[in-house]
Structure of Endonuclease:
Amino acid sequence: MLIVMQLPTSRTEPDGSAVVRVLSCNVRSLKDDTEALARVIRASAPDLVLLQEAPRFFRWRKKLARLARTTGLVTLTGGATAAGTAVLCSLRATVERTEDVLLPLTPGLHRRGFATAVVRFGGARLGVLGCHLSLDKDERHEQSGLLLDRLAGMGVDHAIAGGDINEGPEGPAFARLAGALQDGWATAPWGAEHTWSAADPHRRIDALFATRGIEVLGCGVPVDLPGVTETDLRTATDHLPVLGAFRIPAA
């Protein structure tokens, strides 16, 4: 399914509300074509970028900073301290606070975490949470509950969460999130639907979610980005990114 229309640009409205563009992308530890990845991120013109599998080993801060610099963004939070989830942001964001959260470790499975922040755009105040849920079905479902608990405890009226859910909308963890939050694609589909795999997209396992009260203006896999080829999207990493535009009410 492909829906082609113009996604709203970032802006602050006279009433203090803000249109914010958010990009989520699993970057596979920057093992693929980083120049193509940078082109995709720049062309998406995001205010916030939620990364999964961000660098988390040797010189991870330097690698994350290089990606931010080449895309005209800055590192907001995350990396190794959030088990490979990270958030980049534009200079449009005013940062109130950040917190990296490590989730309980299940023996034999990868450690997971949340990269979180509270930011302001104009008069709008927004909680942000980036995630990469487990490959194990039971642990993934438990983590979806922890995600909702974390959002509820951030002390904000409005929040956006997103990342690699590692299952589609038919799965219990995805359904739990979509039941409590607005699923961006299901609410206002834009672009293309499927995110996995980049070489043969046939499943939607990456998503952006918004709390009630946020207006979802469009959300999906970006297509026809200026200066970005289909090859760029296929070679930047092994997932396709998800881009959304959201109107955040004034605080």
Summary: DSSP finds six helices and 15 strands in the chain. Residues 16-248 form a domain with the Deoxyribonuclease I; Chain A fold (CATH 3.60.10.10).
